[in-house]
Amino acid sequence: MSRGSVVVSILNKSRGAGLRVVACGQTAADLEAALGSRARALQVLGNANTTVNFRAQCAPDAEVFSEMAGERLIRMRSEAAAYEPALFSSGFRGVDDFRARFGETLDWREHALVPPWALVQLPPFHFFARVEGRVFRGRVPLLR
After folding, report:
1. What dihedral angle (degrees, nearest 10) is formed by the CA atoms of 106, 110, 116, 121?
2. Which residues of 48-81 are buried (b: 16+ CB within 10 A; e: fewer)?
3. What is the rounded CA–CA span in Å between residue 60 and residue 13?
C-alpha cells in the first residue's frame, strides 16, 4: 500500500472514528509531491472538512480553492442607449430634433464564489476558509 493511499484511507475513515487530522502545507504542489500524484492530492483536499487558504502565490493553488468553494448566481445588468436624428419623421427641421431609445437587460450567470484573483490579491493575514461547505473570509488578529 502506497503512502498516498494510506493518507487517503485515514482521512476517509477518521471522522467516523472521532479522529481529527490537522494537516498544513505551503502549496498544493507540495502535497502532490508528497503523495505522488495530483489525483491523490486533490482527493486529500476533497476529503478535508475544513480548509483555510491564505494568499496564494501561484494561480494553480488559487484555482484549486476556487473550485472547492463552488459557484453562485450573480445578476448581470446591462444598459443600452441609442440616439438618432429624426429630422424628417417628426416634422421639425431643427438640429435638436432626435429620437432616443433606452434599454436595460437583466440576466443571471454562474460565477466563482471566490475567484482565483481574489486569493492571489489577499492582504497579509487575511484568508478564505471553507468550513463544512460554507465559505468565509477573515483576518488573523495580531496579538501584541
Report:
1. 30
2. eeebebebbeeeebbbbbbebbeeeeeeeeeeee
3. 28
d(CA 81, CA 105): 12
**What interhelical angle do 38-47 and 28-35 show, nearest 10?**
110
**Backbone Cα Rg of the chain:** 26
pLDDT digits (tens, 9 = 90+) for 11-64: 777 777 887 778 888 888 888 888 888 888 888 887 787 889 999 988 888 998
* Burial of 44 per CB tally in 10 Å (0-12, 13-18, 19+): buried
Dist CA 137 CA 95 (whole Å): 56
Tell me which DSSP letter residue 89 carries.
Answer: T
The residues pairing with 107 across neighbouring beta strands, listed in sequence order, are 76
- 140's grid cell: 488573523
Strands (E), the chain: 50-53, 71-85, 98-112, 126-131, 134-139
3-state secondary structure of 13: helix
